[in-house]
Amino acid sequence: MEKFTAFIKDSIEEIRTKVSWPKFSELQSSSTLVLVASLIFALIIGVIDFGFENAMTWFYQSF
What we know:
86% helix; single chain; elongated; mainly alpha; transmembrane helix; transmembrane; 63 residues
């Protein structure tokens, strides 16, 4: 149990002193970029799905 406690204490100390955290503005711009990219990707996948669904409906109705 001592090793585990030491590991937790060392981890907390490393997070506080050795990790460089980004500024809030950097986080905000990165989040905006991820949101926009996700929406564009979802739109592209939606268009492909819509086209594929219509193609399959047309194909099955033609027989």
